[in-house]
Write a structure and sequence with these properties.
single chain
């Protein structure tokens, strides 16, 4: 038991040693949000050892690929059958392209939302389905309030829960724009531990 604790402590210690400070322009909202998002991903993937899954990204890429195929079809068809002979195919491809752009907008707005990580917590015994963890965040333009959301989904029971916090980005960065990883890690782990303890009590 002690050996297991020492092994876990060693793993967490190594994770901290390998950690490199992140420094950004603290007045750049996009850079601030991206650095915090990347740090949250690092906690779940490297500290807790969850496995990232790219289903959401693959869905977006599939929609974009279909859109590009319509555009390529229009170019090739117009080359083989110069306008005005190709007008009908061109019109169909143009309409189809804009429809796919509409589908992409709906997908990113209502399916992806602000989710930047979907990770699987696999069952060590391999008997139960993997639990799903999702991370999402938002930081409005010209605002310092960073909202971080973490959701947990138990595929076996179908139960889903989520928790979030909203804090000023100044809490997580020093005056030089360097990310205070220990401070941010505590906030992320607090949400994770809350959802994990709630999961065990069910």
């Amino acid at each position: 038991m002690a050996a297991a604790r020492n092994g876990k402590s060693g793993l967490l210690e190594k994770w901290r040693i390998d950690e490199k400070p992140v420094r950004i322009d603290k007045w750049d909202g996009a850079a601030v949000k991206n650095s915090l998002d990347d740090a949250a991903k690092k906690v779940l993937l490297e500290k807790f050892g969850y496995v990232e899954t790219f289903g959401l990204v693959d869905g977006r890429l599939a929609i974009c690929t279909v859109s590009c195929l319509f555009a390529m079809l229009a170019l090739v068809w117009d080359y083989l059958h110069p306008f005005p002979e190709s007008w009908l195919v061109l019109a169909c491809c143009v309409v189809s392209y804009f429809i796919m752009m509409g589908v992409l907008t709906l997908y990113t707005s209502y399916r992806e939302r602000n989710i930047f990580l979907v990770a699987l917590q696999k069952d060590p015994a391999g008997l139960d389905p993997a639990h799903v963890w999702q991370l999402s965040s938002s930081l409005k333009r010209f605002d310092d309030q960073y909202t971080f959301r973490m959701s947990f989904s138990n595929r076996k029971s179908g139960v889903s829960r989520e928790a979030e916090f909203t804090k000023s980005v100044s809490v997580f960065f020093d005056q030089n724009g360097t990310l205070v990883m220990d401070q941010f890690e505590k906030s992320v782990c607090k949400l994770h531990d809350f959802l994990s303890s709630d999961k065990k009590s069910k």
